[in-house]
Amino acid sequence: MTYFFEDWFSMVKELQSSINIFSDAGPDVRWVGNEKGYAGSTCWSTINATSLSIGKASILGYLNTGDPRGTNWLPAECDVSIREGWFWHKSQEPKKLSELLQIYYNSVGRNCVLLLNVPPNTTGLISESDVQRLKQFRGAIDTIFSSNVAENCLLEASSQRGSRGGGFGPENVLDDDHLWTYWAPREEDKENCWIEMRSKSGKVKFNVIRIQEAIGLGQRIMKHEIYVDGIRVAKGSTVGYKRLHRLEMGVVNGSSVRIKIVKSKGVPLISSLGLHFDPFWNTN
Known about the structure:
Residues 77-136 form the Glycoside hydrolase family 29 N-terminal domain. GO terms for molecular function: alpha-L-fucosidase activity. It is built from four helices and 16 strands. With 284 residues, the chain is α+β, with helices and mostly antiparallel strands. It is globular. The N and C termini lie far apart (50 Å).
């Protein structure tokens, strides 16, 4: 069977020029390579589109991780259903809240877009059990991220571009602009640089650490580590628009949190940081 993808894409763009088209090969958003809702722990928004084609099974791993040397900006989208399958069946129930939150951390929390399928039932409506689970899911996300204890911390960095007050200081990571304001270290300090949050009074309680790059200027961070009171509690590779570390050891009470950029393609630009408490996280 022959599919005329290029012709279809061209017509869609002609009729709605601002649309983003999703497929294995983009052209705007790429499939993540599975239907579990999980991205790779390393996930670049860049990839080489010339290596992609729709329906090519051999590229699933490449789709999942992206390519730091990629020349095309094609962020990954994680698609998964709220139920076991894509279609409604009376015998199935929606995923548990804990499962949906795990999907969220492994998709949105790994620099991806999340597409959550909610199938209509035989009446053409969304089942009440699915509606309630969606409300529960939305409420949980709001509960976790509505409060950022980092806002009550002092900020310090290994260095900053230019002089104090020059627009690139660590204070930018706590403003409301998560795209165009950021902390930038000096050019010569692009690796093994750090930014630290220190509590103004006593220890703070959290179990989720959020890092965001100034993605409007590209994705740069290749390797990072996180220390609480001098002890490493998490490490990772890419960050991108958003990286969420839900700490495996559970709740942490600490007075200082240091984000160390171990390796970066260019000067790392961190636009936002957060320390959050997830009351739904059970490490058992």
